[in-house]
Design a protein that fits this description.
The complex is a heterotrimer. By secondary structure, chain A is mostly helical. Helices cover 75% and strands 0% of the residues of chain A. Chain A folds into two domains: 47 residues, no CATH class; 206 residues, MetI-like (MetI-like fold, Orthogonal Bundle). In chain A, helix 2 crosses helix 11, helix 3 runs parallel beside helix 6 and helix 8 runs antiparallel to helix 11. Chain A is globular. By secondary structure, chain B is an alpha+beta fold. Chain B folds into three domains: 219 residues, P-loop containing nucleotide triphosphate hydrolases (Rossmann fold, 3-Layer(aba) Sandwich), CATH 3.40.50.300; 60 residues, Nucleic acid-binding proteins (OB fold (Dihydrolipoamide Acetyltransferase, E2P), Beta Barrel), CATH 2.40.50; 45 residues, OB fold (Dihydrolipoamide Acetyltransferase, E2P). In chain B, helix 2 crosses helix 3 and helix 3 crosses helix 4. In chain C, 51% of the residues are buried. By secondary structure, chain C is mainly alpha-helical. Helix content of chain C is 73%, strand content 0%. Classes of the chains: A mainly alpha, B alpha+beta, C mainly alpha. Chains in contact: A-C, B-C. The structure holds adenosine-5'-triphosphate and magnesium ion. Adenosine-5'-triphosphate binds next to strand 2 and helix 1 of chain B.
């Protein structure tokens, strides 16, 4: 009986939380479609004109271009640099592996505001700050480790004997990589790629600190629009928010075909 | 000491009936084995008895008192899980002490009992190790010691030996039998290994798709299987579909084409019934008798050296294959005359879909 | 060694882009604008109440929020350990705020919880309350952080808890443990390390709070967190040296929080096992 009540309370809490989420997202959605909306359950008249307005006023074509360039480049770089590293970490034990894993883990653990300020200071000093290149370089700092840690278990589960078999049957080292490891690790590469992609699109702090005019991604542009609320109609800000949401969701839906929701956050490994 | 555990249980998961009115009465000090193929509902039955899942319908009585409403912690059973389920954060000693601590026993009593239990399973000196530092067989014995420490009214064992290698399995089988006898336990043991079931049990219950197919002493099950399914499980490797020609008492003559076999029946059969004759490889012998009922001829197709004997596959005249065990080597291609002793041939009713 | 060269690009990148800036930032913080090498930046920070107060402000957001988040996430994840109805749907819903990120959640909260939002409308129509101010203040930041970090913490703990063999719980029950004893003696000792890590991550993220504090909070007052202070030094006063000093202070506070959590975890694990008559692992 007590157990039942307990479960009911938990269930109600979860329902409440999900409703609250729906409200938070729903408000943005409805507001973006409202001609005017003021203290009523739903707006009186609907319109899609705020999307056109937002697209024009916030120069979203340019912002989207930057966002896709940044996200695409970061993803490619994270995979290209991260895959060999993940392969080595999965296959070999060597002295100093522990500290090395810590080095890879720290950028994920330390909040971006904490290391973003010194990083920004450095990059501005070398005149990379404020450019698209600077945004890409900064975003790669947490995304490279993310890619490595996502790839690691995928590489670990490829049996070494498959590599040996390929070698015995005449494949060169490179041939093994091309014909055995990469094809078998493809699901991992895809998963890691999508996770890096969605995280880069949504990554705020580092991009915010490193971007200048012309190198803002969608989230940062959204931040400035919300920050300066009152400069432009809130409906147009919400229209931009919806466009941002659509971009994130498109990638997220793909990502969720490959991973369980619990894998979208840090993987805590249990060692008994 | 209990005098009886009686239950009658039905369990459904959604539309799937996993246990269909499984009824059994276990006497005190009895060792009952539930034997059946994977997925037949053995674990489900044990979990219901322990109170870990709720039956769809049915009741469980311990000495006549219904206990199916009790949560697992108040049933006073002991259970050994297939994968041991030792608490990884506790030492061996603390694992064994677990149930006693929860029963509020005194420190000295607990220490003494843990020591005795570890001695019983021959793990004296391991109390301070963690489960992760033990071998499979040792973990197995800790799991048994933990279940026994609380002096359970009934001990439930769910395939406790299935994760061990062959040699250890034999050893632990002896160990379990010894503990059951020495401590006067009442045990229900679940397995899909017929050798385990035969060697351990006072009584065997054969389960298939959640239904009892046959129950009896090991000898009864072994010598008098009532269905092809049970015979197959009990090591009858040769099955011949036949038609009953004549019956006299509990022996019948059955034939198909040139093959004629006389054998025992367990379930009554009448002339004209479709039947299956079952014979164990080791019961077939070479013969010099002239052809007739229960004497067959064939050609050796395959031989297999088994150490003490030779496994031989013989292609019989007229098609079917017979697997036999012979004391002497034979060469592939040679002709053989074989006798299937009527007292060793079991003639069973044919069933749809079996074999 | 040739194989090790596979690692070289990644390691080099992180050394140049993570370790070096960190070191550079620390050194820079010791070379104040006025010239020379001194602790002047730190002294100035702690002596200026407007600046020093940000530590207290941040802690008064981060600590209660971490406790609440972890506690609720633990309860919900524990209750859902055996799987529940619509589990996949619910967990997918919960990924949303993580994937969408702080800025969008902040904007949504401003609308939904705002004075004209659905929540206040509903409360009013039920005659339950005066319009309550839930945004652009301390409450707003707490809400925003909770909406972000509860799902994060919950999903992490759910993954962790569902990795525990259900047979452990079953065998504890059969041995005489009731639901509470199962939690206290079996599950908690196994979950505690995960809770500590989750708590540490949430705390560290909470302590670095920036966009929520600006967009849903009161960045010039009640929710002027330490990250805002650092940002203002860097990008409004262009005092990179002072900004680095504040970032260092922020990092030290986060480390201190981690140390406390790890200390607590040690203590708790110690007692949990000791009552079972066993030593520490
Ligand atoms: N929670 C559940 N939901 C749905 N079906 C279940 C559940 N648990 C068990 N089953 C089904 O019930 C049947 C019996 O399962 P059970 O675990 O009792 O088999 P078993 O005889 O112990 O098999 P094994 O020898 O493989 O352990 C199986 O077909 C299984 O798929
Ligand atoms: Mg089973």
């Amino acid at each position: 009986m007590r157990g039942r009540l307990w479960r009911l309370a938990v269930f109600l809490f979860v329902v409440g939380f999900v409703l609250n989420l729906a409200g938070v997202v729903g408000h943005v959605l409805v507001s973006s479609l409202a001609r005017r909306w003021f203290a009523t359950p739903l707006p009186g008249a609907l319109t899609t004109e705020w999307y056109a307005y937002a697209w024009r006023e916030f120069q979203l074509d340019q912002v989207l271009g930057v966002t896709l360039t940044v996200a695409g480049t970061v993803t490619a770089a994270a995979l290209v640099l991260g895959f060999p590293a993940a392969y080595l970490l999965a296959r070999h034990d060597f002295r100093g592996k522990g500290p090395l894993l810590l080095l890879f883990f720290l950028p994920l653990l330390v909040p971006q505001m904490t290391y973003g300020i010194p990083l920004a200071t450095t990059l501005y000093r070398y005149r990379i700050g404020g450019t698209v290149a600077g945004v890409i370089a900064a975003n790669l700092v947490p995304m490279l480790p993310l890619a490595i840690f996502v790839l690691l278990p995928f590489v670990e589960q490829i049996s070494v004997s498959l590599e040996w078999a390929a070698r015995v049957h005449g494949a060169t080292r490179l041939g093994v990589v091309r014909r055995v490891i990469v094809p078998l690790a493809l699901p991992g590469l895809l998963t890691a790629g999508l996770l890096v992609l969605v995280n880069t699109v949504a990554n705020f702090e580092l991009t915010f600190l490193l971007s200048g005019a012309g190198s803002q991604t969608l989230v940062v542009a959204l931040y400035y629009a919300v920050f300066a609320a009152g400069m432009r109609p809130i409906y147009s800000v919400d229209a931009m928010a919806v466009i941002y949401m659509a971009v994130v969701l498109a990638v997220l839906v793909l990502a969720l075909r490959l991973v369980r929701p619990t894998q979208m956050v840090f993987r805590l490994d249990r060692r008994d | 000491m209990i005098t009886s555990l009686a239950f009658r249980l039905t369990k459904r998961f959604g539309a799937k009936v996993v246990l269909d009115d499984l009824a059994l009465e276990v006497r005190g000090r009895e060792f009952v084995t539930v034997l059946g193929p994977s997925g037949c509902g053995k674990s489900t039955a044990l979990n219901l008895l322990a109170g870990l899942t709720q039956p769809t319908r049915g009741e469980i009585r311990l000495d006549g008192v219904r206990i199916d409403g009790l949560p697992p912690e108040r049933r006073g059973f002991g259970m050994v899980f297939q994968n041991y389920a030792l608490f990884p954060h506790l030492t061996v000693g603390a694992n064994v002490a677990f149930g006693l601590v929860l029963r509020g026993r005194g420190k000295a009593e607990i220490a003494e009992r843990v020591r005795r239990m570890l001695e019983l399973v021959r793990l004296t000196g391991f109390a301070d190790r963690y489960p992760g530092q033990l071998s499979g067989g040792q973990q197995q014995r800790v799991a048994i010691a933990r279940a026994l420490a609380v002096e359970p009214r009934v001990l439930l064992l769910d395939e406790p030996l299935s994760n061990l290698d062959a040699k250890l399995r034999l050893e632990m089988r002896g160990e379990i039998k010894r503990l059951h006898a020495d401590l006067g336990l009442t045990s229900i043991y679940v397995t899909h290994d017929q050798a385990e079931a035969l060697s351990l049990s006072d009584r065997i219950v054969i389960l298939r798709d959640g239904r009892v197919i046959q129950a009896g002493t090991p000898a009864e099950i072994h010598d008098r299987p009532q269905t092809v399914f049970v015979a197959d499980f009990m090591g009858y490797r040769n099955f011949f579909p036949l038609t009953v020609a004549s019956e006299e008492g509990d022996t019948v003559l059955a034939r198909a084409g040139a093959l004629a076999l006389r054998g025992r029946t367990v379930v009554p059969l009448r002339p004209g019934d479709a039947a299956v004759a079952a014979v164990r490889p080791e019961d077939v012998e070479t013969t010099t008798e002239p052809p007739g009922p229960n004497v067959v001829r064939g050609t050796v197709r395959l031989t297999e050296y088994l150490g003490r004997e030779h496994g031989v596959e013989v292609a019989l005249e007229g098609g079917p294959t017979l697997t036999v065990r012979l004391a002497h080597p034979v060469t592939v291609g040679s002709a053989l005359a074989l006798r299937l002793p009527p007292e060793r041939v079991v003639i069973l009713p044919a069933e749809d879909g079996a074999r | 060694m040739r194989v090790v060269s596979l690692l070289a690009p990644s390691v080099a990148y992180l050394l140049v882009m993570f370790v070096f800036p960190f070191a550079y930032g620390v050194l820079l913080s010791l070379r104040p604008k006025g010239g020379g090498v001194s602790l002047a930046n730190y002294v100035a920070f702690f002596l200026d109440p407007w600046q020093a107060r940000t530590i207290w402000v941040t802690a008064s957001i981060a600590v209660p929020n971490t406790l609440l988040t972890v506690l609720l996430a633990l309860i919900v994840a524990y209750a859902m350990r055996g799987g529940i109805w619509l589990e996949r749907t619910i967990t997918t819903m919960l990924v949303l705020p993580i994937a969408l990120g702080t800025v969008l959640v902040a904007e949504g909260i401003n609308g939904f919880y705002g004075p004209k939002g659905w929540l206040n409308q509903a409360l009013l129509s039920l005659g339950l309350a005066e319009p309550t101010r839930l945004t652009h203040n301390y409450t707003g930041v707490m809400l925003a952080l909770f909406v972000q970090h509860f799902p994060f913490c919950f999903l992490m703990l759910l993954g962790y808890i569902s990795g525990i063999d259900p047979a452990l719980e079953a065998s504890a029950r059969v041995l005489g443990a009731g639901p509470w004893a199962v939690f206290r003696r079996v599950m908690w000792p196994l979950i505690a390390p995960g809770v500590a890590i989750a708590g540490a991550l949430v705390f560290v993220m909470n302590f670095g709070v920036f966009p929520s504090a600006v967009l849903v909070g009161q960045p010039a007052g009640a929710t002027r967190t330490i990250a805002i202070a650092a940002y203002q030094e860097a990008f409004e006063h262009y005092d990179m040296s002072m900004a680095s000093a504040i970032a260092v202070v922020m990092g030290v506070c986060q480390l201190a929080g981690l140390a406390v959590i790890l200390f607590l975890r040690r203590r708790m694990a110690g007692t949990g096992v000791a009552t079972m008559g066993a030593g520490k692992r």
